[in-house]
Amino acid sequence: MLSRLNVSKGKGYVSYLTLNNQCRLCHVSPSDQGSRHLLKDEVQLDRCEGERSGVAVISLNRPKAKNAISVRFLHLFTEALEFLKHDKSVRAVIVRSNVQGIFCAGADLKERAKMAQSDVGPFVSKLRAMVSGLSTLPAPVIAALDGAAMGGGLEIALACDLRIAASSAKMGLVEAKLAILPGAGGSQRLPRLIGVPLAKELIFTGRVIDGKGAHEIGLVNHVVDQNKDGDAAYHRALELAEEISRNGPIAVRMAKLAINYGSEVDLATGLAFEETCYAQVIPTRDRMEGLQAFREKRTPTYLGE
Description:
Layout: E1 2-6, E2 11-17, E3 23-25, E4 43-48, E5 55-60, H1 71-85, E6 92-97, E7 102-104, H2 109-114, H3 117-135, E8 141-145, E9 148-150, H4 152-158, E10 162-166, E11 170-172, H5 186-194, H6 196-205, E12 209-210, H7 211-216, E13 222-224, H8 232-245, H9 249-262, H10 267-281, H11 285-296
Parallel strand pairs: 5-6, 6-8, 7-9, 8-10, 9-11, 10-13
Antiparallel strand pairs: 1-2, 1-4, 2-3, 4-5, 11-12
Helix pairs in contact: 1-3, 4-5, 5-6, 9-10
């Protein structure tokens, strides 16, 4: 089960959502009566319940435009990230689509065609900042690619820590076909992920590959056969997020920080930064709980303290 969060007001809020997206309204406080539209908004933020209560889910929900990134979409996604950035109870984040067969089609080209030339640069800068904000969320982020991820859609996935794709999902940085280049980090993150020569080939050609091909080149961590509901990658992402969330949350966050920073510097600097991160977990209650649980041969209960 998932509980919907009102990201614009920063409150836990109104509904419960089953995994097949059947929604039932449970409670709306008087102050939130005007927020019912969030159930159908372009970017939704939910929290899992029960054993997966530490897992947050960002759902892309703009079906008529194939989840294309508009000004409003960008604003809502940025709001969701701001909410998650400050919520220490979140242990893993999943980015998925509510639109069957589509993850994100990239920029909203219809809206872009109407933009003044002077507005394009600032919009792309905001998009780049949003994608970078996704990459720097404290908790691990998993992209569930159950459908096509093109251009900016793939750039969103590249900013996640882990990617899971359905074998049938199509993906590519196709910007060169529109006489532009990836502008939300794709030209930087793809080479770091799969290597410079192969990244150049994919970007220069604008080639589209499927989930199996993406797995073969290391673009995604796991590939799964699609199910009849079209959400196989999402279910695999939930399993992985639950596995992550069972571990010490401070340790996981520090590990992410150490890896992200260390991969951009020389080994000696990276090792020094690892030492700094390790120092943050030494005084935690979670570390002592891990040791005590090991002695008592039981499953530890980590509180993020």
